[in-house]
TrEMBL record:
The species this protein was found in: Dyadobacter sediminis
Entry annotated with the keyword Methyltransferase: no
GO molecular function: sodium:proton antiporter activity; xenobiotic transmembrane transporter activity
One of the GO BP terms on file: xenobiotic detoxification by transmembrane export across the plasma membrane
Protein name, per record: Multidrug effflux MFS transporter
Entry keyword set: Cell membrane, Membrane, Transmembrane, Transmembrane helix, Transport
Record has Membrane as a keyword: yes
TM stretches of this protein: 45-64, 76-94, 100-121, 133-155, 161-183, 213-231, 251-270, 282-303, 309-331, 343-362, 368-388
NCBIfam families: efflux_Bcr_CflA (TIGR00710)
Length: 409
């Protein structure tokens, strides 16, 4: 493979990977403007974020079998077309109910890009290069939450929230054109694969029966729900409680992303000395302590903007260690059903994100308490699940040395 071909493939796959994070984060600074324009509240607008998480949960379970049955490109083309149409619909939505519904459809479309990009890495590159390629793609995923809300803040301030969805529509069109023109066919459709519900569900059932999977996948998903609580609650907290504008909120979001991204990358260094199990235990205990200290400070009125940023930064750092290692441990027992296990793990993660973002949206009064309560509660529940669930693991499969758990998130 020539350097030029390699570069273009990485560029296209990176763009596919970034589509979901940009769709989640870029419109967050526009929550107050959307609420005002659609005659609703910022808390109700956050339901459109919950809708997006629902769409991703459904999409991850949907596209895995479709990509194997029909090849990579056809489901990807359909998904991108759905994404483009839904994004354009979001730009002209006239009610919050329309926006929520269109965000669900938009997420189902974007999920095709996410799932296909992961599958095509294995198709297009030698196994020896896979770790390097995944590192590059995950760098894109990590940088996206830093860029997207910052750009979204400036775009919203200058042109209004509709412009954000117009930009996402144009991004979808550009990525679709690139996949049509330059992305090669990488996988021959498997016509023998059944798309009937029974064999698919049996596959999922066999995965769920594994104690190591349900213990660590649920632990990771519940711990990761603290990040969803932050993403869902932060527009209300920073722009309604602390009265920052869209531009400042974008920069705050970018700064806090450094905590999560940085710790997840440092995780690879810790794995040289400690096991994934040890890191999960320590990071989750720290996450609980930070979460409840944060909650106590919030309940006693001790929080200002700076102290809030410190607590959020530390909490997100813990998630950067907890989730990748929990993900690696949950997938470790599988060779045959790794795809189904990965899809289920993603569905658990997004399902928890949906639940916690819906709960936060129920509190319409500007307050930091719901967000912090959800963060502390998720950390505590994850620790309870870990302590209870690992009692049923009779044969633990460890993450092999050299497996980069930092790349599993």
């Amino acid at each position: 493979m020539s350097n030029r071909t390699y570069f273009f493939l990485i560029l296209i796959l990176g763009s596919l990977t970034a589509l979901g994070p940009f769709s989640i984060d870029m419109y967050l600074p526009g929550f107050p403007a959307i609420a005002k324009d659609l005659h609703t509240t910022a808390a109700k607008v956050s339901l459109s974020l919950s809708g997006f998480f629902i769409g991703i949960s459904l999409g991850q379970l949907l596209y895995g079998p479709l990509l194997d049955r029909f090849g990579r490109k056809k489901p990807l083309f359909v998904g991108l077309c759905v994404y483009i149409l839904a994004s354009a619909g979001c730009a002209v939505a006239t009610s919050i109910d329309q926006l929520i519904l269109l965000r669900i459809v938009q997420a189902i479309g974007s999920c095709a890009a996410t799932v296909a990009s992961v599958a095509m890495v294995r198709d297009l590159f030698p196994v020896s290069d896979n770790a390097k390629v995944f590192s590059l793609l995950l760098l894109v995923v990590g940088v996206s939450p830093m860029i997207a809300p910052t750009v979204g803040g400036y775009v919203t301030a200058a042109f209004g929230w509709h412009a954000v969805f117009i930009i996402l529509t144009v991004m979808g069109i550009a990525i679709l054109a690139a996949t049509v023109l330059w992305l090669p066919d990488s996988y021959k459709p498997d016509t023998s694969l059944s798309l009937k519900p029974r064999p698919i569900l049996m596959n999922f059932f066999n995965v769920i029966r594994e104690p190591q999977f349900y213990t660590y996948s649920l632990t990771g998903a519940i711990a990761f729900a603290g990040l969803f609580a932050y993403v869902s609650g932060s527009p209300l907290v920073f722009m309604e409680v602390f009265h920052t504008d869209e531009k400042v909120y974008g920069w705050i979001f970018a700064f806090l992303s450094i905590g999560f991204i940085g710790s997840s990358q440092l995780n690879t260094l810790f794995l040289r000395k400690y096991s994934s199990e040890q890191i999960v235990n320590i990071a989750l205990i720290c996450q609980v302590i930070i979460g409840f200290t944060f909650l106590a400070a919030a309940l006693n009125g001790l929080l200002d903007l700076k102290i809030t940023l410190v607590f959020l930064f530390l909490f997100l750092c813990c998630i950067g260690y907890t989730y990748p290692n929990a993900a690696a441990l949950s997938l470790a027992p599988f060779t045959k059903n790794a795809g189904s296990a990965s899809a289920l793990m993603g569905a658990f993660q997004m399902g928890m994100g949906t639940l916690i973002s819906v709960l936060i949206s129920l509190f319409e009064e500007p307050s930091i308490i719901p967000m912090v309560s959800a963060m502390a509660g998720s950390a505590f529940l994850a620790l309870v699940v870990l302590l209870f669930g690992r009692r049923f693991i009779t044969r633990k499969v460890e993450v092999r040395e050299g497996t980069d758990a930092g790349m599993m998130h």
